[in-house]
Specification:
The protein is of the alpha/beta class and about 575 residues long. The chain has helices spanning about 30-40, 40-65, 75-105, 110-135, 165-175, 190-200, 215-225, 245, 285-300, 315-320, 330-340, 360-375, 390-405, 410-425, 435-455, 460-485, 505-530, 535-560, and strands at about 70-75, 140, 150-160, 180-185, 205, 230-235, 240, 255-260, 275, 280-285, 310-315, 345, 355.
């Protein structure tokens, strides 16, 4: 890190900096309670005080040498083996299907088209293998006793977020029970935010330049602070009071570089949620990742920092030169560098902080584009397949992270294939005969059931495909921008009022609807006027086009639905009300 790039620092006194501020300790207040209740003489009080202080010293020592609690599985070992068997059988059926397809069903009359479709199916097999690998053995950790007397700095990163959002986060950070110092890291250099920091009782650091965006902001703060541990929160991410108590205990292991907690969002009516109030059910697009995949990656020693809700060991960060600045996804990039140096990461699977999810399709797409473009760009910086110091499972898991963002092209092939079949008469399959249809139905049923079973209730086929329909073009853009080596720019996700979707943002889905409808119409006209007698092929393609068109239409309905128009999210609450009917002329 270059000290020359750092500019200004304004630090206001924090309550936790006050010398009179007593450090938090287990059993605090025990002495006064005993002496006031049971003893009156000064000699007795003094004796009890000595004994209790000795007991506290022993207790602190005992806590300090306690091992980290043993790791357990999310499910019992027997149930987990069942999931592993299902995953293995599913991949076996998929592999048989691919071999059969390659040997018997590639269409030489539409060779390029047939190979493109086979590529999409092969991509799906690799993606499913990586998905199952990451969830092979999800583990659950129990929070260890927190270590005593650690020095902790809490960083709140902000650039242009609304002041009231940062204020709420700062109040939550200051309110954490474990002794610490809270810093607002303002890349926007706003005087009003400095005033807010002083009012709340936290520290304020501003930069005059925004070099390296969020990573540069964090590195700047690392140069100007000195605590042994650093907690990081985005401007909208509010921690619970026990956040530090639940995470610091893991650092008893000297090789632990960071502890990550799951993302959680409190605006459940946002764009990323499927909410059914009647059935009292809620599904978030990222549930399967944070509740299942990250615990699974933790088993392989490859969980990673996701930008907020984490605690770092300063020594580990200093060893790699601070947060990585070569990409716009400093979180994953920093994690890979830490692992390559032999450090460990821990995933504590308990919600300890909450923030705001993307509210509309524009901010959602900008966020996805940044994540996809940044993660894919790691291939050109610190490629996990070839970087020294990583284990084989770590290489596989980080390759899976990058590979998952390349799903755009295969999905485009799936979404347009039936339309191409109906409009041109080209088929990706040589013959739609019964031997193929039976094998395909067995393959499709097995993959769907295997995915649902191994996903342990978090995977939703329809919802997943809706988000694939929504995101495929953005993911294609991310791949193409990396191919042309476009230099990405860090863009903060919009946290404020939602806006109606621009037509360009949903034009790919609109084109899928129009293309499917046009192709379906032409296919039916060919049968009606006798241009083609291929009832089976046109029937299969027509059904497929209807499914794709309905999927795209559903996405368009979701993104154009009524949206939340207030600047800030408000929580709905039911309160008792008393009312009285007044009978009269004016009632």
């Amino acid at each position: 890190m270059d000290k020359g790039e750092f500019s200004t620092i304004n630090i206001f006194k924090s309550a936790s900096d006050d010398p009179s501020h007593e450090a938090w300790k287990p059993g605090e207040g025990t002495e006064s309670a005993i002496t006031k209740t049971f003893l009156n003489s000064d000699e007795a009080k003094k004796w009890v005080s000595i004994q209790i202080n000795a007991l506290k010293t022993k207790l602190d020592h005992w806590r300090s040498i306690q091992p980290i609690p043993p790791i357990s599985l999310l499910k019992s070992a027997r149930v987990n083996r069942l999931y592993q068997v299902v995953a293995t059988l599913t991949l076996g059926v998929y592999l048989y299907y691919l071999i059969y397809r390659l040997i018997y069903t590639i269409n030489p009359n539409a060779f390029t088209f047939s190979l493109l479709f086979y590529y999409a199916e092969l991509h799906g097999f690799i993606a499913l293998f990586l998905y199952f690998f990451q969830m092979w053995k999800p583990i659950q950790r129990k929070a260890p006793f927190p270590c005593q007397d650690l020095s902790v700095d809490v960083f709140i990163t902000t650039y242009n977020e609304e002041i009231h959002l940062v204020r709420k986060t700062a109040m939550g950070c200051v309110g954490m029970r474990y002794p610490h110092r809270t810093y607002i890291l303002d890349d926007g250099n706003r005087p009003e935010l400095a005033q807010i920091a002083q009012e709340i009782g936290c520290n304020y650091i501003a930069r005059e330049n925004g070099k390296h965006a969020k990573a540069g902001n964090l590195n700047n703060a690392l140069q100007l602070t000195n605590a042994d541990f650093v907690a990081i929160f985005d401007a909208d991410y509010v921690p619970q009071p026990d956040f530090l108590e639940k995470t610091l205990g893991y650092f008893r292991d000297e090789k632990v570089a960071f502890v990550q907690t799951p993302h959680n969002y409190y605006n459940v009516d946002s764009f990323q949620f499927k909410l059914n109030l009647e059935k009292r059910k809620m599904w978030n697009e990222q549930d399967v990742f944070y509740r299942l995949m990250m615990p699974g990656r933790d088993y392989w020693g490859s969980c990673f920092f996701v930008g907020t809700g984490a605690v770092f060991r300063r020594k580990a960060l200093e060893e790699i030169g601070g947060f990585a600045t070569g990409t716009i996804t400093e979180d994953l990039h920093t994690t890979i560098r830490l692992y390559s140096k032999g450090w460990r990461g821990i995933y504590h699977n308990e919600i300890l902080a909450s923030g705001l999810a993307a509210k509309d399709v524009k901010s959602y797409h900008l966020q996805k584009l940044r994540w996809a473009e940044g993660n894919i760009s790691l291939i050109f910086h610190d490629n996990p397949l070839f970087m020294k110091g990583l284990t084989l499972p770590q290489r596989i898991c980080f390759f899976a992270t990058i590979f998952g963002w390349t799903i755009g092209f295969p999905k485009l092939i799936y979404f347009t294939t039936p339309s191409v079949m109906l409009l041109t008469g080209w088929y990706p399959i040589l013959h739609f005969d019964w031997p193929f249809i039976i094998r395909y139905l067995i393959f499709l049923t097995t993959v769907i059931l295997g995915f649902k079973i191994v996903s342990r209730g978090y995977g939703k086929i329809k919802a997943d495909e809706e988000y694939n329909m929504l995101n495929f073009f953005i993911l294609i853009r991310a791949v193409l921008r990396n191919i042309i080596r476009h230099k990405p720019r860090f863009i903060v996700t919009e946290k404020e009022i939602q806006k109606p979707p621009a037509i360009l943002g949903i034009s790919p889905q609109l084109l899928i609807v129009l293309l499917s409808f046009a192709a379906l119409t032409w296919g039916l006209l060919k049968l009606y006027y006798g241009i083609s007698q291929d009832f089976k092929g046109i029937g299969i393609a027509s059904f497929w086009a209807i499914v794709n068109g309905a999927l795209a239409f559903s996405v368009l309905g979701n993104v154009t639905a009524p949206y939340y128009k207030r600047r800030d999210f408000r929580f709905l609450d039911a309160i008792p009300v008393q009312y009285r009917l007044i009978h009269g002329n004016n009632s």
